[in-house]
Design a protein that fits this description.
single chain, 434 Repressor (Amino-terminal Domain), mainly alpha, 72 residues, 4 helices, 57% helix
Length: 72
């Protein structure tokens, strides 16, 4: 299991909440269904473009925050 598994689980949950199949998400995002499967399982790394394409297909925006770690 890859470090991307946590993000893949979130993508899967959002996909299911949207009522989409892997095939529908793949078609809407311009990816292959096998890529969606691998992303959801954490077996495929996400590029920034791929993440944005999936988010757009699901109706979400990608927002990235960098936060300073507490000192101490």
């Amino acid at each position: 299991m890859d470090k991307n598994y946590g993000l893949g689980r979130h993508i899967k949950a959002l996909r299911k909440m949207s009522g989409m199949t892997q095939l529908e998400l793949a078609q809407a995002s311009g990816l292959e269904r096998t890529s969606i499967t691998n992303i959801e399982r954490g077996n495929q790394a996400l590029t920034s473009k791929t993440l944005h394409d999936i988010a757009d297909a699901l109706g979400y925006e990608v927002q990235i925050k960098f936060m300073r770690k507490p000192v101490g």
